[in-house]
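Field log, afternoon session.

UNIT: design team B
ACTIVITY: writing a sequence onto a fixed backbone
BACKBONE:
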């Protein structure tokens, strides 16, 4: 019998008493499951607190897989928390698992993934067996799914060591780790981490050819001097792959591949100074637009690349989030620039006051009734003589003002202080206008 932890007493005790009395047996239920409360950002979810969120509402911004992972990463019989931090942790694990499976599949297709097994491989195989046992023990210990996810995450991290050395390592134990990962997560209902596609073999061959050409163009564009001859030769060799993609019925992939080749030829007609930048931009468009539309995640690495199938909607959402973050960063940068410029203007306005007028105007106006020839106060507004301690402090302030005034005179130059201040005001106004337009 199951229910929330708040039903343990007296509700479930009452159910036991009534049911056992009615049925005439000493034990009505063998097992009780009392789930912890769900909190929203640390507060118990409640209609009265107006922090009630339905599954349907949550799935507008998060996938079912992300929500499952978020709950799996918390103990079922303790209080569970739905928050930005909790969902971001789940998304991070999801990205990690998806990337691991996608990268393994990518490297298994490449001829370099044929190393010989050695101590590294044996260690990882042992780690897979130990992880399997640890997960079994965790699930038998009060269904500790959080521990199971932790074990899988650690195993994936260990497996990356062999993936990073795929030219010399055997990927067989990495495949064992992947199989354990998919088996356990599949049991938990976390599926689709390694998406399948129709005509996957043919599509993978076409995408390999497409991404290899793009990599060639990128490398040529990064050279000190772009060789148009080499770029043309690379593009001309793609014709057979495009034709094969068309023959296999891969219409969208073939169209994107062909459009890329045509655009590269167009780039070669550009000014030599802009050629490299235009080639690199078109290569970026393949990653951020063409492959996304095809449901493919393309990642550029230091000297290489990799790609894997993924959900186009997820990738478009990620690109939007990245763009939004960039806009927010630009806004913050501009706001900070405005703040600094405003401070500079205020400091300049203060520095522009002549030392002999400093205590006669501004915030000190009216405090003093007599001054010496340099502008230092000698008497208070009441007529009393300025004390020695106050005179010392005023002298120090006056000296600083004299230095600041000399400095701003040098900054202003021949145009004078008034023109300098007006220029600063104009800069502040322009920045304010830009900030307000955003």
């Amino acid at each position: 019998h199951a229910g929330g932890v708040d039903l343990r007493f007296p509700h479930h005790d009452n159910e036991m008493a009534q049911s056992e009395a009615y049925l005439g047996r000493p034990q009505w239920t063998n097992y009780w499951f009392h789930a912890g409360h769900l909190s929203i950002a640390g507060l118990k979810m409640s209609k009265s607190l107006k922090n009630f969120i339905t599954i349907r509402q949550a799935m507008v911004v998060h996938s079912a897989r992300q929500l499952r992972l978020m709950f799996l990463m918390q103990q079922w019989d303790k209080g569970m928390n739905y928050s930005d931090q909790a969902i971001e942790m789940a998304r991070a694990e999801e990205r990690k698992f998806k990337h691991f499976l996608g990268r393994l599949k990518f490297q298994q297709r490449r001829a370099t993934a044929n190393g010989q097994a050695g101590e590294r491989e044996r260690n990882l195989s042992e780690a897979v067996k130990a992880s399997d046992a640890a997960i079994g023990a965790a699930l038998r210990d009060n269904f500790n799914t959080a521990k199971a996810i932790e074990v899988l995450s650690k195993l994936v991290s260990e497996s990356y060591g062999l993936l990073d050395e795929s030219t010399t390592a055997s990927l067989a134990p990495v495949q064992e780790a992947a199989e354990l990962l998919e088996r356990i997560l599949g049991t938990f209902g976390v599926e689709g981490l390694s998406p399948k596609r129709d005509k996957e073999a043919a599509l993978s061959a076409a995408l390999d050819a497409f991404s290899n050409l793009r990599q060639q163009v990128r490398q040529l564009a990064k050279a000190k001097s772009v060789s148009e001859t080499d770029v043309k030769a690379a593009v001309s060799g793609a014709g057979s792959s495009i034709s094969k993609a068309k023959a296999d019925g891969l219409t969208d992939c073939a169209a994107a591949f062909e459009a890329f080749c045509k655009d590269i030829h167009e780039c070669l007609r550009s000014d030599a100074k802009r050629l490299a930048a235009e080639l690199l931009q078109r290569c970026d468009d393949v990653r951020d637009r063409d492959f996304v539309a095809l449901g493919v995640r393309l990642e550029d690495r230091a000297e290489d690349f990799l790609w894997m199938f993924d959900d186009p909607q997820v990738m478009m959402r990620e690109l939007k989030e990245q763009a939004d973050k960039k806009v927010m960063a630009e806004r913050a940068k501009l706001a900070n620039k405005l703040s600094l410029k405003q401070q500079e203007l205020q400091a300049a306005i203060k520095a522009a006051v002549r030392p002999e007028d400093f205590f006669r105007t501004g915030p000190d106006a009216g405090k003093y009734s007599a001054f010496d020839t340099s502008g230092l106060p000698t008497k208070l507004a009441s007529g009393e003589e300025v004390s020695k301690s106050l005179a010392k402090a005023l002298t120090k302030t006056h000296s600083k003002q004299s230095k600041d005034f000399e400095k701003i005179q040098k900054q202003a130059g021949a145009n004078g202080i008034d023109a300098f201040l007006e220029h600063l005001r104009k800069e502040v106004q322009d920045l304010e206008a830009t900030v307000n337009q955003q």
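LOG NOTE: The first helix runs from residue 8 to 23.
NEXT ACTIVITY: expression trials, pending approval
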